[in-house]
Design goal:
Hydantoin permease; binds tryptophan; mainly alpha; globular; 76% helix
């Protein structure tokens, strides 16, 4: 058997994992959740979750992957716990589901890039017409999925790593340039002030819950994406410091996205606080409001800034779709013994097909647009939102809970700590290692277990547990 493909360098591995983390979550979702959640107050809660809760789960995923050298399903089997392989199956299923709708939003981002290049700023005013137009969105969707599959079919070092080495530096340059430009706009400082002054009165349990979900999703945790990437890492790599770098990179990009977005908002609203609050706090902001703002910069500058922004968004989405596709593909390759190229195209095609109802639920087909009303909801939600609720909000925290329990109590801490130390003996007994050990045993199972229960009761039973605490 040919030896398993690996990342060629530690830097390549870190860039690929950071690429998985940095995505639509950072640039699209983070700023509007921050806007709705009290600015810096939300950011503080988000940061706390990222480091206290998510970072240890990331170390656990990487350790399980590296030790087993397998995809998430095979990993539990190779470690000797066949019964726990269901966590891996859940992860593969989550990969299918998340990518199915993530690709739709990625297609919007890329479509908007093309519109900006052509100076068609009025797409923003007609966002509904754009998402409704399934031929256009479907074509961009095929293009995006096809490009993702092209990278994945080339394997780890020749595909994922190479792509990350180009995309991530480009992304960093673009976001820094956009932040720098945004900060020169009139009223920019009022935007920054709104972003960075905490309004703790906005922090409700609901907001804390959102911040946790956002941190978890943003770091690509809970479905074994990092078990998979960890399985391609050499045993000489220190995975604790790698996880720390990935976490810091991810939150820094999210932070920069806010630093870019709020000056734009302040420019539009001329620094009016209430208007900033209302405009920035909605999911439509990027696709509806931003193009108009770009237009007001004038034709040439508007095209440069607008195209730059949506290219940035597309690149961020691309390194994430790559990691989402790699999880089910690696399962097909390891467990079903299907050659990588074939496995990639089968999985990509299937996921695209599963994504069609999500794509059509955004205006094209009415019944998909108001698809179900789950218990406790006062209106019907669309198909895309439903898939998001099942995969992002339910599977990921549940997966994270199970991974923590598995690591601490089934695989056991001795093995976990040995695997952590394999890359760097000095980590043994260090404060950081002792923290990870403590968190994975108590903090992560407790919080993630609680969150899973809250989500399941709230979404599927219609009982809002969080309301008891208000
Ligand atoms: N983290 C990415 C984002 O913020 C999305 C993503 C990529 C992801 N791979 C994942 C989320 C795996 C959960 C699991 O947009």
């Amino acid at each position: 058997m040919a030896s398993r493909d690996q990342f060629n360098s530690r830097l390549g591995f870190i860039l690929a994992s950071a690429g998985s983390a940095v995505g639509l979550g950072n640039i699209w979702k983070f700023p509007f959740e921050t806007g709705a959640g009290g600015g810096a107050a939300f950011v503080i809660v988000y940061l706390a979750f990222a480091f206290i809760l998510c970072f240890p789960v990331m170390v656990a995923e990487l350790a399980i992957g590296r030790k087993s050298q397998r995809n998430p399903v095979g990993a539990f089997k190779v470690l000797g716990y066949k019964k726990w392989a269901f966590i891996g199956y859940m992860g593969v299923a989550a990969g299918f589901l998340i990518l199915s709708f993530y690709n739709v939003v990625a297609a919007w981002a890329f479509g908007y890039f093309v519109d900006m290049v052509l100076g068609r700023f009025d797409v923003g005013a007609h966002f509904g017409d754009f998402t409704k137009d399934w031929i256009t969105v479907g074509s961009y969707g095929i293009l995006f999925m096809g490009a993702t599959a092209m990278v994945i079919s080339r394997g780890v070092s020749g595909g994922i790593e190479k792509a990350a080495k180009i995309l991530m530096p480009a992304l960093l340059i673009m976001i820094l340039a956009l932040v720098a430009y945004a900060l020169t706009l009139p009223h920019a400082m009022e935007g920054v002030k709104f972003y960075l002054s905490p309004d703790f009165s906005k922090i409700t349990w609901q907001v804390v819950y959102k911040a946790l979900g956002q941190a978890f999703f943003s770091l690509s945790l809970g479905m074994g994406a990092l078990i998979t990437y960890g399985s391609y890492v050499s045993r000489k790599t220190n995975i604790v410091s790698a996880a720390a770098i990935i976490t810091v990179t991810d939150v820094s990009i999210a932070f920069l996205a806010g630093l870019m977005m709020f000056p734009f908002v302040a420019f539009l609203t001329e620094g009016d606080l209430v208007a900033m609050q209302n405009i920035s706090g909605g999911p439509g902001f990027i696709f509806q409001t931003l193009p108009g703002i770009f237009q007001s910069f004038g034709d040439t500058l508007g095209i440069i800034v607008g195209a730059g922004f949506f290219l940035l968004l597309s690149f961020a989405a691309f390194t994430s779709t790559i990691s989402l596709l790699e999880v089910p593909t690696s399962y097909m390759v390891d467990e079903r013994k299907i050659p990588r190229k074939k496995a990639t195209w089968i999985v990509a095609t299937l996921i695209f097909l599963i994504g069609i109802p999500s794509m059509l639920s955004q205006g094209a087909v009415d019944w998909l647009g108001s698809f179900v009303q789950l218990p406790g909801m006062d209106h019907k939600i669309d198909f895309l939102t439903l898939v998001g609720l099942v995969a992002n909000d339910t599977f990921l925290p549940l997966g994270g809970f199970l991974i923590s329990v598995f690591t601490a109590y089934i695989w056991r801490k001795q093995n976990f700590n040995d695997e952590i130390a394999a890359g760097d003996e000095a980590i043994r007994g260090s404060l950081l290692q002792r923290y990870v050990d403590f968190a994975i045993s108590y903090i992560c199972p407790a919080i993630l277990g609680f969150i899973s229960i809250v989500t399941i009761f709230n979404t599927y039973v219609g009982i809002d547990i969080l309301a008891w605490f208000e």
